[in-house]
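so my prof wants the structure for this chain in the tokens format not the other one, which i didnt know existed until like an hour ago. anyway here's the sequence
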Amino acid sequence: MHKSIEINEKIFQDAVKFYGTVFNIPPLASKIYSYLLFDYEKVGITFDEFVDVFAASKSSVSTSISLLLNAELIIDHNKMDERKRYFFINEEYKKIRFEKIVQKMRDELKLLDDLNNFKKVRDNGYNERTDAYIALLNKNIMNIEESLNKL
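here's what i got, hopefully its the right format
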């Protein structure tokens, strides 16, 4: 098993479990993503190394890499003098991830607004908990957007 990077097995296993759950990706995709976390030098990892390190079929590795590329979790590039593709963690993904979270919160706010408008037609009931939830969503959107501007 040829590894071009050094990994800590415990941290690697924890990362596989965590990112598999957070990103809702299959185990091999989670292993590939977690393995790339240890590429501190940003030299990139080749397709063949993934096949070798994880003792997985080329088809399985290819499918997992495609999934990670489509989800924008990783990026790839070719070096000028080689045909091999090298894979890296997408450093922009942190920003992309939180932009998606903000968009989901905005979508939920619109839905809640539509529901409140519909409810007002039916009755004049005031829901303090819904207002508190809406305020929480708005506050979190503002906080996340402020932090995103700093990235």
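also thought this was worth mentioning. The longest strand covers residues 74-78.
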